Amino acid sequence: MTWVNAVVQGVFLGGLYALFACGLSLMFGVMRIINLAHGDLAILGTFLVWALVDRLGVSPWVALVPALPVMLGVGYLLQRTVLARSLRGGPLIPLLTTFGLAIVIQNALLRAFSPDVHSLGAPAGRISTASLRVTGQLSVPVFGLLVLAAAVLVLGGLHLVLRRTGFGREMRATAQDPDTAALVGIPASSVYARATAIAVATATLAGVFLAIRSTFDPSAGPTQLIFAFEAVVIGGLGSLWGTLIGGIVLGVAQTVGGTIDPQYSILAGHLVFLVILAGPRGRSIATRSAP
Amino acid sequence: MSLLRVAGLVARHGLLTAVRGVSLAVDEGECVALIGANGAGKSTLLRTIAGAHPAADGTVVFDGADITALPAHRRVGRGIALVPEGRRLFAGLTVEENLLVAGRRGRPGEWRLDTVLDAFDMLKPLLHRRAADLSGGEQQATSIGRALMTNPRLLLIDEVSLGLSPIAVDTVYASLSRVLASGATVVLVEQDLRRALSVSDRVICLLEGAIALESASGAVTRDQVTEAYFGIGAEPR
Fold this sequence. Notes:
By secondary structure, chain A is mainly α. In chain A, 78% of the residues lie in helices and 2% in strands.
């Protein structure tokens, strides 16, 4: 039963990782940018929610209502100002730019909020600890279920938007060939800005789920970036459903590893990632040009 | 007044000057064929008019407004559409999606999904096929249809028949003649001289980035074209 429990917990944890990863996957898929500040942008959004909760005494869910549009705006402006310029400099410049941005965000948060560790678990109320008992030994955490459902909704929603709407078609066309997209009137810069806005907002949502589930502090971003990156690579670059699967594989690896020995939790996740990177998919990533 | 007026246009690829001081005008409803050898600057000229390539010097005036500095995606809104060389369809999108994605940002007008499909009826059974899985002729039809979806006032077509089978060329031209009959203004690049002359009202031959010959398509002789095409008898440079 311990193992079944570990797998169940891993699936829920995977939902969280997938939610972190979907913005990373979207930005890579549309712009070919690996956003190294993705985790830190998530933590920035989480601090915004935490500040609202702290000052106004509202629940994190209520605080998300103003915070998500603000973070959409942050993402939009980030693309319009910093990333659009760096994109013109070739593929390496955005990597350096977002790396620098990550450091700037971490240190700004450190200055504004001190290195204290925070959690949104208590303000979120009972939902963060409640669980449904399935059998005598197996219980399902309500919050884990909620996170997984949110991940499926967000990834599924994004998938539908990309497949079914005019805006989604424009995004896919621009991802494939931005120069030709311009020839049918699509301004790549505006598509890119909207993709970044969505990525930052979903990262914020993931950050808040992380903060309710456990704790966060100004330096929590890079760890989430690594997990998100691993989920994206395991699931296949640019594929949203693959990202969900990738997140779940990573989550299950971590919880199963942690059941063997608590020290092995993170390591097991890294090992699965490395095995996949060494396999045929990893080779296809290494040799891939623009798909 | 001419719909398009190009004056002293210069375009470069790095150190190489592909278009050197071209001036031309296209009237509304006219079909102009652009001919010339490989590397004569035909594609670069079309791309510069569409805004896909920067002009190093000279001006592009469209409908009385100087659009030389306007980015490509804004020229689409003014009514310029380019069918690029090599078709350049969005390979992962279906034929229908390739057409629809172009219908959002262009001008309103007679060309919609149904009217484009009427003109290019070969595409009707292929709507849900991925563009990557089409034959060359089907791709070219989709690419022209995609440009039409923006309801251009000026349609630029680069290499109508390059790489297509003879039958596909016939099919594409049959559809194209329906487009021309509707009064569209078209500038097209065509390697097949006979086709170029039969479909167009006027022919312009480029030689090493400059206009070597400009004439009504019906009045031009084969010798004139050969001379302009290859530069035989031209001043040594």
